[in-house]
Design goal:
The chain is of the alpha/beta class. The protein contains 13 helices and 9 strands. It has a single domain, classed as 2-enoyl-CoA Hydratase, Chain A, domain 1. The longest helix has 21 residues. It starts with 20 loop residues before the first strand and ends with a helix. The chain binds zinc ion.
C-alpha cells in the first residue's frame, strides 16, 4: 500500500452551501439572492442567517469588489416570513424578541450598511417590510419598472414600522410619513423620482443593467472606494443616522407587546397577510 501515491486534491475550502440564498461569484461581483421564490422570497430565520453568512463570505473574499443583493424569481422579497414569526415567536418574551430582532433584523441590516465594499440592491416585484429595510441598507438601488416598495406593518401588525427606520433617510421625512401612515405601495418610477432608487430598467434588463453598474464600480480603486463609503456613511451618522435607528429599534420593541398587537395575534397570520394585500 506504500506504493499508492496519493493524488493531491485541491485544498480549496469547500464553498459554503446555501439553501435559502443563492450565492454567485460573477468575476469581481458577488451576487447574493433571496432564494425562496415559491414563498415570494419571504425572509425566514434560515434565509436571514444564510444571507448574513453569504455577506460575510463576500466581504472576506479579496476578489470580490462589489456585492449585489437580489431575489430569485418574480420578487425581491415580500419581507419577514409572517407565518414563521406568528407560529414560532408570537409568544416570545420581550427579552427573547429583543435578542432575536437585535441580531437578525437590526444587526444583519447594519452589517449591510457597514459593509466595507459597495453594495447594490437589485429589485423586482415586491420589496416589502423587512425587505424594504434590507434593500435600503444597500448603497445603490436598481429597480425594474414593475417593482414596488411598501412597509405596511403598522396597518397589518400594529408594529411601529419595521425594525430599522431607514425610511426618512432615503425618502425624505414628509414622503416617509405618508408611506408609513398609509402603508401604500410606491411604484419604482415614483421611488426613482424621489431619489430612493438610482435606476429603473425594464424587467428583462434588470440583471444585466445591475451587473454592468456593479462591474463599472468594481474597476474603481477599492481602498479609495472603501474610505469614500466610510465618509459618506459618516456624513449620515453626523446627522444622527445611527442614533435615530437605534432609538427606533427600542420603540419598535414596545409595539410588539401592546393590546393592539395582541388582538392582531389572536386573529392569526392569515388575517394579517390579507390585510397587507388590501
Ligand atoms: Zn419587530
Amino acid at each position: 500500500m506504500d506504493d499508492v501515491i496519493a493524488i493531491a486534491e485541491p485544498q480549496a475550502k469547500p464553498a459554503a452551501t446555501y439553501v435559502n440564498v443563492l450565492y454567485e461569484r460573477l468575476g469581481a461581483v458577488a451576487r447574493i439572492s433571496h432564494n425562496r421564490p415559491a414563498q415570494r422570497n419571504a425572509e425566514n430565520t434560515p434565509l436571514l442567517d444564510e444571507m448574513d453568512a453569504a455577506l460575510r463570505e463576500a466581504i472576506a473574499d479579496p476578489l470580490v469588489r462589489v456585492i449585489v443583493i437580489a431575489g430569485v424569481g418574480d420578487h425581491f422579497s415580500a419581507g419577514h416570513d409572517l407565518k414563521e414569526a406568528m407560529s414560532d415567536r408570537s409568544l416570545y418574551t420581550v427579552e427573547q424578541r429583543w435578542e432575536y430582532e437585535a441580531t437578525r433584523y437590526y444587526g444583519y441590516s447594519l452589517r449591510i450598511w457597514d459593509c466595507p465594499k459597495p453594495t447594490i440592491a437589485q429589485v423586482q416585484g415586491a420589496c416589502v417590510g423587512g425587505a424594504f429595510m434590507v434593500a435600503n441598507m444597500c448603497d445603490l438601488v436598481v429597480a425594474s419598472d414593475e417593482a414596488y416598495f411598501s412597509d405596511p406593518v403598522c396597518q397589518t401588525l400594529a408594529a411601529a414600522a419595521v425594525e430599522v427606520l431607514v425610511h426618512p433617510w432615503v425618502m425624505g421625512l414628509r414622503t416617509a410619513k405618508e408611506f408609513l401612515y398609509t402603508g401604500e405601495r410606491m411604484p419604482a418610477a415614483e421611488a426613482h423620482r424621489i431619489g430612493m432608487v438610482n435606476r429603473v430598467t425594464p424587467r428583462a434588463e434588470l440583471e444585466a443593467e445591475t451587473l454592468a453598474l456593479a462591474e463599472k464600480i468594481a474597476r474603481t480603486p477599492p481602498f479609495a472606494l472603501q474610505v469614500l463609503k466610510r465618509s459618506l456613511n459618516r456624513t449620515a451618522d453626523i446627522q444622527g443616522f445611527r442614533n435615530a435607528l437605534s432609538a427606533h429599534f427600542d420603540t419598535h420593541q414596545v409595539t410588539h407587546v401592546t393590546d393592539e398587537t395582541r388582538r392582531i395575534r389572536e386573529d392569526g397570520a392569515g388575517a394579517a397577510i390579507s390585510r397587507g394585500r388590501n
